[in-house]
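Thread: "does anyone have the structure for this chain?"

Original post by V.I.:
We have the sequence but no experimental structure in hand. Need at least a predicted one for the grant figures.
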Amino acid sequence: SDPSDWCIFSTQPLKLTIVPPVRVAEPKQPLTVVGVHEKATALQMRYDVSNTLIPGRFSGAGGERLFTPERNWQPVSNTVIAVQVVNGVTSEPSDPCSFAAKAPKPVIVAPTDALWPDQPLTIIDVYPHSPSVQLDMYNEANYRVKGVFSHEGAERTFTPTAGWTPGHHKLRVIQSVGGVVSDPSDWCEFTA
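Reply from O.Q.:
Generated one for you, tokens below.
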């Protein structure tokens, strides 16, 4: 018989695998993605439930790449998927990868002048999207300093319960979101 007409088709690339972090992830920790096809023209990382593209950068070569997000991972819980495009064909999404991430470390704004006894300190880079944010202030002996934090936004204030005693102070602050603790802020030194 005469041969059939040509049948042209594409095969879907294999789905990727995302290697979950072994521990609680740092705020911008890269994720390892394996199974990248040698002719992949695009790689994408997305949040699983919303399918929202996560801005970031893939680096490396060969079948294993690192994805570094532009912005911090969400504190506490993230579930992500990855896809690759080969010859214009998109793979099935990877299996979801779930991991916990730390909140970014907060920053105490160093006062430029000596503080009055009841003058508050300003803290920035507080995670603003969770009602479960807890802040704790510590002195250089690692004792918690009793006081009151303002309650909303990425910028907060801290006023000590007993007021600042005259002299030199060295403090740092830690935030926890959903029970996941950030790295401590850098030390802030000032006089009162």
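V.I.: this helps a lot. The mean pLDDT is 92.
O.Q.: and Residues 94 and 174 are 35 Å apart (CA to CA).
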